[in-house]
Design goal:
Length: 280
């Protein structure tokens, strides 16, 4: 079978996916989005039956998944899943509807509304853009003065998305959080991202350590995947002293090289098998 790898930059993870496709006896079809185009006319065909979407840009990942789906290609992840996970507000709404534990969160559309939301949640609060990754433009406000400064800067950014204020409870992590990997059918693996900083992304310097799997963690991963529409996902989870595990974010085009390195799990292989419909 021909399996397309849709990408913007050929990182180590994409190279691992190509090797996994070959190891499983299939033909990889690398598709560099920035130097190619995709037809969208009725009757057009595409030179692969399956496509693994690995574009770093959520907009490009979503657009390419929509286009390939319209050509009859099985895409991982689905366009709706990419769109849901690419917007923190939509993700939180889906998780809440499904009864998945999350931090207390509010959305406001003005500075005054955001200040009221923070007062309701209780300081400190985390302010996030509704879209974005790698912890960029995520801020911690200890009090009203700090929050007001953050929001004034955000409202000066010429994008309507930065006038949607996503205000979230600050979870006091035990020096780490969890990045778990799984699908709507199975839990794959998980790591602790250990850092003295409250932002624990490995892209920001956090250290990856294998996490102890548990029935609670596996169940939460599967339920979370189902809540956002399924798919092969990376799920960020915090450990709250009182409530236990709470889901922070869900990633539809997830990075995994550090998790594969420290756990020894063939995450690229699991992704390809899932794309082929062979996962549990």
């Amino acid at each position: 079978m021909r399996i397309a790898l849709v990408y913007e930059r050929l990182r180590e993870e994409e190279r691992q996916i190509i090797r996994a496709i070959e190891k499983l006896g299939h033909e990889p079809v690398p598709l560099h989005l920035n130097s190619n185009f995709l037809p969208i006319n009725h009757g057009e065909t595409f030179g692969a039956e399956v496509a693994v979407i690995r574009a770093m840009s959520t907009a490009k990942a979503h657009a390419s998944a929509i286009t390939l789906s319209s050509l009859g290609v099985r895409v991982v992840n689905l366009p709706d899943v990419i769109a849901t996970c690419g917007n923190k507000l939509v993700t939180t709404a889906r998780l809440s509807e499904a009864g998945i534990p999350t931090p207390r969160t509010a959305v406001a559309f003005s500075l005054d509304g955001a200040l009221e939301a923070a007062e309701s949640i209780g300081y400190p609060v985390v302010v996030k853009p509704v879209n974005g990754s790698w912890g960029r433009l995520v801020s911690l406000a200890q009090d009203e003065e700090e929050l007001r400064t953050i929001l004034e800067h955000r409202e000066a950014i010429p994008s309507p998305y930065y006038r949607i204020h996503y205000i979230q409870e600050f979870i006091r992590k035990p020096g780490r959080d969890i990045r778990a990997y799984g699908t709507e059918k199975s839990f794959i693996t998980a790591i602790y991202r250990v850092s003295e900083h409250w932002v624990t992304n490995t892209a920001r310097g956090a250290r990856a350590v294998p996490a102890e799997p548990s029935e609670e963690l596996a169940d939460l991963v599967i339920r979370t995947a189902r809540a956002v529409g399924g798919g092969f996902l990376g799920i960020d989870i915090a450990e709250d002293e009182e409530r236990g595990l709470v889901v922070i974010e869900v990633n539809a085009v997830t990075e995994y090289k550090n998790a594969a390195r420290v756990t020894g799990v063939d995450i690229a292989g699991e992704l390809v098998r899932y794309a082929l419909g062979e996962g549990e």
